[in-house]
Design brief:
Blueprint: H1 2-15, E1 22-30, E2 36-45, E3 50-54, H2 61-69, E4 76-81, E5 84-85, E6 96-99, H3 111-121, H4 126-140, H5 155-167, E7 173-177, H6 185-202, E8 205-210, H7 213-219, E9 222-227, E10 230-235, H8 237-242, H9 247-252, E11 259-264, E12 269-272, E13 275-278, H10 280-283, H11 287-290, E14 294-299, E15 305-306, E16 312-324, E17 329-335, E18 338-344, E19 355-361, E20 365-369, H12 377-382
Helix pairs in contact: 3-4, 3-5, 4-5, 5-6
The structure holds adenosine-5'-triphosphate (ATP).
The site of adenosine-5'-triphosphate has 13 residues, from helix 2.
């Protein structure tokens, strides 16, 4: 899935590389109380792209989205639409439609009237409105609900009405701020695929904010990972998963998260519980530079194999807990003080308290600098 998204984006870029549709150039937000919420945010967005801003609570995602929408002033930097400065344009002039966390539907109006609201305000001809509402309702699977009031709808249906209200206006950009956060887990999965479908049908440029990495991975052409107001990395889901630039991105993308063993290099090796792993050969000409320094050894739960394999680190460990998840199982292991999660075939799930050996293929290991937390370059290249 991530690979497909990446390929999709690449071909799109080839077609239209002359000028980006939206450009964020060194955008900063400093709130009136002096809080610097967004630092030097840079991004070029092509027409039709699905961009997701992801990161933990408070990292500046919504602030950035609201600056794009024209709901917050940009303190510093430039926002361009089709190459023209748009900082001073109001929300309407920017041709954006926003879908918020709370659906903000009018409770006394039917689904039809809620969807039609923007067009009615603009004084659009009734027949045209009727046709557009019906077409929008068809895309969203709301045809049978047009006469209902919002209170007689499920959460997912309400969210679709809110999306309908946005997509009925012919705007250039859809901005969505955590649109699925009020839904339960099952509804979120359904709505997620519906949003992807709507994007395919409308082809509209979309910027979507979430703190959920699965939503980001499944929806995005490109993801922007943020932390503490700073962009950590921008890339396709495939790039972020395979080539994270730092410990934060490596740990944020992927479920269960990447395992990290933090240790000091001694004689070219690091301890992993009772095991000692040769990292010098992975570090190559940087081995001397890291001797005596702390590094972070990372591997994904799904990249291990049970048993001893060639071309792999072999680690002995104790099984602490297992979790059966249907098509796979999580195995929580300890090796001395170190802990990790392994994702295995459910048929191979080891017994709790048993001793196991597992292998981490050399090519699937990530090494990060313990101080800067950045990936060590040679390893980044090798793990591609
Ligand atoms: P969440 O997922 O919780 O919505 P977020 O990543 O969208 O988080 P923002 O809402 O953009 O984060 O907020 C970024 C930071 O700016 C937070 O620390 C927040 O407290 C702060 N902030 C937001 N609005 C204001 C404001 N009006 N004045 C001062 N600080 C603000």
């Amino acid at each position: 899935m991530p690979a497909a998204s990446g390929a999709r984006h690449k071909s799109k870029c080839k077609e239209a590389k002359s000028m980006s549709y939206l450009t964020l150039k060194d955008i900063n937000k400093i709130y009136p109380n002096g809080f610097h919420a967004v630092h030097n945010f840079n991004l070029d967005i092509d027409k039709g792209e699905f961009i997701v801003f992801v990161g933990p609570s408070g990292c500046g995602k919504s602030t950035t989205l609201r600056m794009i929408a024209g709901l917050e002033d940009i303190s510093n930097g430039e926002f361009l639409i089709n190459g023209k400065r748009a900082n001073e344009l109001g929300p309407r002039e920017r041709e954006v439609a926003m879908v918020f966390q709370s659906y903000a539907l009018y409770p006394q109006m039917t689904v039809f009237d809620n969807i039609a609201f923007g067009l009615t305000l603009q004084g659009v001809d009734e027949e045209v409105i009727e046709e557009k509402v019906k077409n929008t309702a068809r895309i969203l699977g709301l045809t049978d609900y047009l006469d209902r009031l919002p209170r007689a709808l499920s959460g997912g249906q309400r969210q679709r009405v809110a999306i309908g209200r946005a997509i009925i206006r012919k705007v250039g950009v859809f901005l969505m701020d955590e649109p699925l956060s009020n839904l339960d887990a099952k509804q979120r999965v359904t709505m997620r695929s519906e949003i992807a479908q709507i994007h395919r049908e409308t082809g509209a440029t979309t910027i979507y904010v979430t703190h959920d990495q699965t939503e980001a991975m499944t929806l995005a052409d490109r993801i922007v990972v943020m932390k503490d107001g700073y962009v950590q990395q921008t890339g396709t889901p495939y790039e972020l998963y395979h080539n994270p630039v730092n410990v934060f991105v490596a740990g944020f993308i992927g479920e269960p998260p990447m395992n990290f063993i933090r240790a000091r290099v001694k004689g070219g090796r690091i301890p992993f519980g009772p095991n000692t792993l040769d990292v010098a050969s992975r570090l190559g000409n940087k081995a001397a530079q890291y001797e005596g320094k702390e590094i972070v050894f990372g591997f994904r739960p799904e990249s291990i194999e049970l048993g001893a394999r060639e071309d792999a680190y072999q680690v002995s460990a104790q099984v602490e807990l297992t979790e059966m998840l249907g098509d796979n199982a999580n195995v929580y292991i300890t090796a001395g003080e170190d802990k990790a999660i392994l994702k295995v075939d459910p048929h191979d799930t080891p017994e709790i308290d048993s001793s196991i050996i597992f292998s981490i293929p050399y090519g699937d290991v990530y090494l990060f600098d313990g101080e800067t937390e950045k990936v060590i370059e040679r390893v980044l290249e090798k793990s591609r």
